[in-house]
Amino acid sequence: MTAPPHALNLVEAEASGPASYPAPLAAVAPPSFEKTGDPAALAEIARQVRIKIVRTIAQAGLGHVGGDLSVTDILTTLYFGVLNVDPATPAKPDRDRFILSKGHCAAAFYSVLSLRGFFDPAAVDTFMKPLAALNGHPNRRKIPGVEANTGPLGHGLPIGVGTAVGAAITGQDWRTFVVLGDGELQEGSNWEAAMAAGHRKLANLTIIVDRNRFQQGAGTEATNTLEPLADKFRAFGWEAIDVDGHDMTALLRVLAARGTDRPRAVIAKTYKGRGVSFMEDRVEWHHKVPSAEQVEIALKELSL
Amino acid sequence: MSAPEAPRPAGAPETFDCRVAFAEELIALARADSRIVAVCNDSVGSSNLGAFQKEFPDRLVNVGIAEQNMVGVGAGLANAGLIPFVCAAAPFLTGRATEQIKADCAYSQYPVVLCGMSPGMAYGELGPTHHSIEDFAWMRAISELTVMAPADPQETRQAVRWAATAGKPVFMRVGRFKIPAVNRPGDSFLPGKIGTLREGSDVTLAAIGTMVSRALEAADLLAARGVSARVLNVSTLKPLDEETILRAARETGRIVTVEEAINVGGLGGAVAETVAQHHPVPMRILGVPGFAPTGDTQFLLDHFGLNAKGIVEAALALLGKGAH
């Protein structure tokens, strides 16, 4: 054997990455809200998150507002009530892992991360602007607190199975949480991962399905039937729990509890566009952008 | 998969299945570093992971026949601080899980080592579904993914050792089709650099993986005809060592590329992109022209002219000399 080959580097161009990459966002901003076990306080944070989402989408002129608003209470409960994460050290080894498999709901994710103190909430105003760190789908190399570059559907759960297996191999007790859209459960990769998680009895893995019953163009059941969804997970060796995805008390209770001998699937019943009357439960708000007038109405409703 | 081998003729070089060196090196690394884990798709046998599984049963993650999940799990294991070697037959690893390789490994920059076992036409008679001739083109198109094809057991060991600490995603071919050693003991392996195995001034033979030993053989035959052929071992296909390619273009004026892969988008494509933009020279791109007919690996390589004779003919054509 020759000199240690791993001391050598590949050519410079590859090592430094494409020049078009902006500098990552600076980590750490004072959190806008502290972690809390009070459901009423969580609901108030979620209201602020929704206001931020609507403003962000309106300013960008792009986004997935319907799914952002359906997943808001889930993300808020996780980040402000459940997850062991530290914005001051986003990569601390014993952090809980959170993966947003429905990466298109980045506006909700960025709003929650920034209000939690991972970066300056003002930076969310750069959402989808040219060369901004805040792409339409999250990028872990640019945004503190992001674990995986999601966007294509059906990727988050396999990665989450990997982190959960990794914790099991290394004997660590941190947990893995993955939020999935319901429509993306039509991707086969999820069921490969569900089978592996059930087989391995990954009690440290919890998924939350944002069950708003709509995909991009129509209802899930009108497109490719998912029900009986909880039973499907049970058949794969999971514990499945139905919960009201807008009830902070219920979400807090269900998400704080750890599985005992198998992975947990929390089927969170939600409404697309939740919190804005004219968007709620309407498929057309999947990625429609509100007009100036509609933004005004939405913000008024969210401020009541 | 193949018929029992005939005994080696006297004088013929000893040949090696690179999976043996791969497995031995992986086990040596795993003994020294508890972060090393192997992930596979029901391929403990074909990935030659039996001994690894026996010694490290808790560090062998067999996800079953599920390649998309397998690669995603690899990225998750890397997130958890482990060093995953994700092993599967190359056609299924690269074809079935392309998007996971792109998004979860390359774009997310998780240092997963993707090991494409039995690449090229190693599964000869099993046919084009089981051939991995597209992997170079597919993997080369993915940004920030290193693509390697070690040419012999020694280089396989060195590539495995390097990839474990590279801190970036790597795809490497691990050959099953038996090949002779092309590097001498003590030869240094430079990741990202092309090895010059033989100097020459009339034509350059740039080869990768299983084709390197054949290029050396061709250089001998060419020397007997008074042609001085330079032989390059392109063990890292991406990033390509453009400096060595362009020096060869300037100094020899002609390049033949040889790969056990489809003849678009692989080594030939990479070299052509480089020379066409910086120092155009006449080229011949030798590879597999399309879906292969039935036959064992040796038959198919000969069928497509991927042997010393075929390389010699291409070089002589570039030199304006007939083969006879």
Automatic annotation (TrEMBL), chain A:
Keyword tags: Thiamine pyrophosphate
Cofactor(s) this protein requires: thiamine diphosphate
Pfam families per UniProt: Transketolase_N
Domain (Transketolase N-terminal): residue spans on this chain: 44-295
InterPro entries: THDP-binding, Transketolase_N
Membrane-spanning parts: none
Entry's family note: Belongs to the transketolase family.
The name this protein goes by in its record: Transketolase
Source organism of this protein record: Labrys okinawensis
Automatic annotation (TrEMBL), chain B:
Superkingdom per UniProt: Bacteria
Cofactor(s) for this UniProt protein: thiamine diphosphate
Domain called Transketolase-like pyrimidine-binding: residue spans: 16-182
InterPro entries per UniProt: PDH/Transketolase, THDP-binding, Transketo_C/PFOR_II, Transketolase-like_Pyr-bd, Transketolase_C
Keywords of the record: Thiamine pyrophosphate
Translocase keyword on record: no
Alphabetical list of Pfam families matching this protein: Transket_pyr, Transketolase_C
Entry-linked PANTHER family: PYRUVATE DEHYDROGENASE E1 COMPONENT, TRANSKETOLASE-LIKE PYRIMIDINE-BINDING DOMAIN-CONTAINING PROTEIN
Family of the protein in this entry: Belongs to the transketolase family.
Name of this chain's protein: Transketolase
Organism: Labrys okinawensis
